[in-house]
Amino acid sequence: MRNPAPIPSDPSQIVAEITEELAGTRLEPKVILSELTRGLSRRRPGTWIATLLNRDPSTTLVVLADDSNEAMADYVKRYVASLDSAGPVPNTGVSRQVIDSGRYALYPRIPFEKFLAEMITQTGQTYQSRHPLPVTYESVGLLVVPMHAREATIGTVGVVDWNSRQQLDDDDAKWLQAVADRAGITLDHALLNSAAVDRLERLGALRSIALAITSSGDLRLTMSVMLEQLATKLRVNAVGLLLPDENDRELMTAAHTGFHSASVPSYRFPVDAELRDPALVRRVGLIRDMDRIDHGQRRSLFAREGFQFYIAMPLISGNRHRGVLEVFHRSALQPDQEWLGFLEAVGSNAAIAIELASMREALARSEHAPVRSPNPGPAPELSRLERWILALVVDGATNQDIADTVHLSQNTVKFHVRRILQKAGAINRTELARKATQQGWL
Fold first, then answer.
1. Which tens digits make up the pLDDT trace of 233-248?
2. What is the total count of domains within the chain?
3. Is residue 2 part of a domain?
4. Mind listing the pLDDT tens digit for each residue in 22-38?
5. Taking the model in full, what pTM does it have?
6. What are the residues whose beta carbons fall under 8 Å from the beta carbon of 369, sequence distance 6 or more?
7. What angle do CA 57, 60, 64 make, to 5 degrees?
8. Backbone angles phi, psi at 269, to 5 degrees
9. SS3 helix, strand, coil % of the chain, rounded to 5?
10. 315 neighbors 324 (Cβ within 8 angstroms)
11. Are 352 and 422 contained in the same domain?
12. Strand 89-90 and strand 59-65: pairing?
């Protein structure tokens, strides 16, 4: 077991040293909180806890450190790992009280059993019941101060003083408040920087998607670019695309990325009336219940994948349903409005790309299909040989080509071509070919 760090006689020295260390820290919230708790733990014994409100204020990011006791340090390390795998931590307990009130909470001496039962969060109680503390104490001291930024409370900083060795008091609350507020300023800069970087990256992603749509006629390539950009910029594990079949009655798996499974089955789901009606889709908006689309068909697959978060965006363009864009994550997420806005922007681009691909396919079919007159006239009376020659004329064959094909002389072919022109009422071979094609004589 390590010897406890000496308690500095001048708390202002701690404030100055921590401030200097935070100034050189990378602008990432979790890195800042880790540097803060480790720095405090090196200077004052106890388990140090820092929390930062997420964009959803009902949850927090929690970081702990304890440098004074090897057994507790190992316990804290395992507890933090469990928090990381569980996703956002509910904002409860003493930390929640401090955030709501804006005032520090000080408990110089609490019976150990009361601390376990009343002072730690439900998450902490659940973990402690499964993994008891490595050391039993008689009492506990607790100090938690609010962390401020731009006149708002954004989190807390606190210490658990095992066995009440430090005899925490109001003077400790004052210097710790100074540390917390300096950390709050640093965190605010980090959050603003992160938000700016996210916006720039997402704008760049939308530009890449727009270029893919306009420069490539390959829908699969365009969708691949979209899905990769979506997964990267939303920081999610997997994304997928469902497209309707030619009759718009079933949804089919069209593309996906991020699945652990080597091959994802080609599922087909009936398209509910709600998805076929653009007015209903716009009113319902984003879909968060997977069963509303696939009626539980993929439940076993997603259980194997470990997905805990799901959201889907129906794709509408040209007042028609074009498909569904799906997002999956293996831990809980609480997306903010900018996150959802980016998803909707990508979804709108996806719908447009699918509509353009559909228009290209329709145009290609029309170019290869025979053009028929809206009011076709009667076909002229032609013999079998004349119909054969007419078909060759329509194909652009010369008299020599026709003669070689039908085994006649060129003069005989010329005679038959003149007769066909007279019967068809055409002045030349070009008009003959056009009329035969438009009016479906062949």
1. 999 999 999 888 877 7
2. 3
3. no
4. 988 888 999 999 999 99
5. 0.58
6. none
7. 160
8. -125, 140
9. 50, 20, 30
10. yes
11. no
12. antiparallel
